[in-house]
Design a protein that fits this description.
Elements (H helix, E strand, L loop, with lengths): L1 H14 L6 E4 L2 E4 L8 H13 L5 H12 L17 H12 L3 H7 L6 H5 L7 H17 L15 E6 L20 E6 L12
Antiparallel strand pairs: 1-2, 3-4
Amino acid sequence: MQLLDEQLATVTRGQDNELPDAILTESGLKITPLDAAVPDRAQALIDQTSQLLPRIKITELLMDVDDWTGFSRHFTHLKDGAEAKDRTLLLSAILGDAINLGLTKMAESSPGLTYAKLSGCKPGIRDETYSAALAELVNHQYRHAFAAHWGDGTTSSSDGQRFRAGGRARAPGTSTRSTVASRDGCSIPISPTSTRRSAPAW
């Protein structure tokens, strides 16, 4: 009974907007975000570590990751299940999705690429192939020895990442932060976990 009384008192305080860092508005509960304060010693370590990292193009990094994991093999053609013949073209289309650039702008900003070439990869870029490729990446992370430093697997940092899966780029200013599948895209759950155990393919 005492616990119930305490909880009811907390609810009453919330209705009166007396809770710290939380207020009720017409649209619902609004919670003050935590300060992203980074200790000076941690920032110094971040800067020092950044200087040790090689300076490479993001496209080269994507190719390296694919060489390590083989995630691109999951982007198979919808009709015959064949793997992409041009890996560079496929990864360019995926990169366009990842940075919300879209195929049109990706083609315009990449010498030698055209919208027609990139759109030819669309039959292999679907929600299920994204899920399989992401599972491949997560499993590779789990098997890496360094993953043991992240914990015992009891926690995860989960989010949804938006991927386009067909169609031309959205109009400027159109939100892409969706949590459901739509005609031209989907949100894939991203859940890096503190474990070395393997995850099943989605």
